[in-house]
Amino acid sequence: MDGNVRRQKIIEQLAQTTKPISASRFAKEFGVSRQIIVGDIALLRAAGEEIIATARGYKHEFPENQKTSKIAVQHTEEQTREELEIITSLGGEVVDVIVEHEIYGELVGGLHIKNQQDVDEFMKNYERSTAGLLSQLTNGIHLHTIRYEEEDVLEQIKSALTSQGILYKDR
Q: How high does pLDDT run on average in the chain?
């Protein structure tokens, strides 16, 4: 299959779903290597396509009708699930996690956690992994970009996180 045709089909498939599609799935479907798909995605991004990479695959970014804000939080490793569940249960999406690193500056990890299934999958992957959370580099202090549709959703999230001692306050 011609690369231009393949890339167009990738765009079409990403536009038809809000769920991530893995490079491996695209590779199998198009009969190419995973690395070819990674290259295709890089070319599409360079051409201006709003494609984001998540731990579960690629997806098209659909920012219309949605607002984003950053919140500062601090919590223990054991409170990770609680934090994610509070945000998603109130209608927020945890877009990413951001920490400040002494050498590298700002480190950003894409999350795109929208619902309980995403929370469960993230926690399962974390528990199986030998990697640590980015927040472990900063004594639990980190930022999240939160995506939401209604202004009151952000206030509800902040209030719920405050009540659980998770929203970061000058201490």
A: 89
